[in-house]
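To whoever is on call:

I kicked off a structure prediction for a single chain this morning and the downstream step that reads the tokens threw a length-mismatch warning. I double-checked the sequence; it's 387 residues and nothing unusual in it as far as I can see. Pasting both halves so you can look.
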Amino acid sequence: MNKACQLAAVALLAAGCAAPEIKKAPAVSGDLVEEGRKLIAAASEKDKILWRYRVALVAMKAGRFTDARQLLDECLPTIGAILTADERTIKARSLFGNEAQKIYVGEPYEQAMAYFYRGLIYWMDGEPDNARACFKSAQLIDGDAKDKAFASDFALLDYLDGFATAKLLGDGSDMLRRARASAVSSKTNALTALPDYDRQANVLAFFQFGFGPLKHGGGRYGERLQYHVGHSAVHSVRFKIGEQTLHVSALDDLSFQATTRGGRLMDDILADKGSLKKPLEAIATIAPAAGAVLAGPKETRGTALPIIGAGVVAGAVSNAAEAMADTRTWNNLPQHLAFTAFRLPPGSHTAAMEFFDRDGKPLPKLTRSLTFEVRVGRDTVLFISDQ
């Protein structure tokens, strides 16, 4: 065996004998909220609100409303702060800024849902006045729509605004009319889904079904914010407590909310960036080839270098122009929201829940029961997800 082969054999033997480096997997607690908090801590500053939204909803589904309250309070600024562009947002709108570099607060339907959940927790805590303020805030955010026909059209938000007003001995009739009008426009049976307010109802049951919309980039450069619409096998639930049987149908549709608002200011900015990139790419492709041709003849050689340089500059500017839409998504939102309210005496109660699809066929795998306590002097608020 020659010397080279001997050295190779020794190297292979050494490699085979060396113990492989084994990296210990990070410890996982099995507590989804705790693991979510780790993800929040590890996230960049621009993504922390997104992760707080996601983990807050995980906490709500687990019945850990104290955790959800804290997480939502950490990421829900005042409306004025949401509607005011910060430094990162201003930079994202510039030619060389990437929209995804801005601090995430979400599209209006996502922001509205954060306020919806916070309002729900306020009502749980016996604060219907603060709950009402959250529902109003959510509708204000949803009101900034390019297509005004779909501004502030969450039926449930208006209905709950009016219901809280009625509970506080005010007149919620205007909100009830608005809610029913929005329900009709989204093809919901408004009178069935949104009955007259019952001030004596002391149990409020909030339902959410299915999987909400997800964002993706469309267009040549990903400059158009588009949606994969969500889906839900569940479209209604039968909620039975003793002699009471309530049929609750899906009301608001988050895919409808996400896709009917019309364009955003940022869409126009990204479209302008995309329009600029296209001719720059053409110059970057054509100019070097034209310059190479001109560099041959002696009489045109002097013009070749500037043309080649223009192509290089155009290519650099095109590459630096960030036209891609921000597709970060609050990806555990539901597709549908539903609600009902009713009266029960104080004490412990158990409800049987059966879920049904769009055609009214039962989904037996989802059937379950819920035990809860009705207290004196405060509404009992139930949060129920089919997931």
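Update from on-call: the warning came from a stale cache, not from the record. Cleared it. Sanity check on the structure: Residues 32-266+325-385 form one domain.
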